[in-house]
Amino acid sequence: MSPETPPHQLVDLLGDADPGVRLRAALELGEAAYTPAAGPLVERFGHERDFQIREILTWAVLRVRDAALPLVHAALTSPHWLARLQAVHTVSKIGSPDDGPRLLALLDDPVDAVAARA
Hints:
Elements: H1 7-13, H2 19-32, H3 38-44, H4 51-63, H5 65-75, H6 81-94, H7 100-104, H8 112-117
Helix pairs in contact: 1-2, 2-4, 3-4, 3-5, 4-6, 5-6
């Protein structure tokens, strides 16, 4: 990737087999605050196994917060436990009291890590 890599190509690289490429793509999308990437960034919550990359995904999502927040809220009910876990983590960084009921609903999540994070 280079500084000239178009954002739409960076979105495609979020699913690359190489973790370094995925990390760099998420970083560059966050730096650009590329709003159209909100959906693909949140969608990666449920598939990304690398903790460091998930942290960068959260940071990038927060950079496009207004576009991403409804998608993050939807991820709280995802069938993928990693998506729920990362969505809880992301919501906790926003710190809105409006999210309390959404998080309370996850206290009984069947995955202990999700329930504990909520």
